[in-house]
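Homework help board

Subject: predicted structure for assignment chain

Our instructor gave us this sequence and asked us to write out the predicted structure in token form, then describe one feature. I got the tokens but I'm not sure how to describe them. Can anyone check?
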Amino acid sequence: MKTNSPREVARFWRELLGYRIAPNHSNSVKLIGDDGPALLIQPSDNPIEQGAIHLDLRPEDQAACVDQALKLGATRADIGQAGNEGWVVMADPGGNLFCVLQDQADYRASLANDPGTATSID
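My token output:
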């Protein structure tokens, strides 16, 4: 059954990937594993279809991740961003929106004074 609940989707990805919930600074759900990028699951402000969600990736290297996504068939998506947000909005080959967030190092530096809180999904 198709769902538009970020918490239900997060539970699925948590179990599928073996990730765990981590603190963050929004109402999105942040999942992390021992390897690979963090995964943030949140409601989309500009859904492709009503109730859609999109994924956020926080890679070690934002530029390399964007380049790889483009090579694999993703496109840059314009949803009205100003251009100085710190993330890149993209669409996968199926048209599903996702964001490539700032580099891990930049993000860790921003957490020095505020580690955030985990969004409960259970």
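Reply (TA_rk): Your tokens look well-formed. For the description, you could write something like this. The CA atoms of residues 16 and 57 lie 16 Å apart. That's the kind of observation they're looking for.
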